[in-house]
Amino acid sequence: MFKEFTVGDRVRVIELPRYVKTAEPMPMLRPPNVIQIGEEGVIIDRRPGGFWGVRFSKGAFLMDSQYIEAVAVSSQTALGSENPPESSSNT
């Protein structure tokens, strides 16, 4: 069973594969230590066979859906915490 994600979703690595493949036009196999368990990335596209293109800090890699999970969006982020609530003090 494949996990479903949407382009732009944040995901976290939950298990390292034996190797990772770069998400380039001419893919290369890389050792799994280019990413770490717990590292977060962003889904950039869907590939056949349950693979997802994921952008991490060290590049974009193809990840099988069994190795990643969705990162829950915090309520602070969802509510736009960058705008602090207005104070009600009268000065």
Q: Return the CATH class of the domain at 10-72.
A: Mainly Beta
Estimate the strand proportion.
35-45%
Name the poorly predicted regions.
75-79
The largest sheet has its strands arranged as: 3-2-6-5-4-1-7
CATH architectural group of the domain at 10-72: Roll
Note the total helix count: 1
How many DSSP E strands? 7
Biggest sheet statistics: 7 strands, antiparallel
SSE string, helices as H and strands as E:
EEEEEEEH
End-to-end C-alpha gap: 60 Å
CATH topology heading of the domain at 10-72? SH3 type barrels
Mean pLDDT: 84
The helix fraction, in percent, is: under 10%
Compute the gyration radius: what is it?
Answer: 17 Å
Multimeric state of these chains?
single chain
Q: Which outline best applies?
A: globular
Structural class: mainly beta
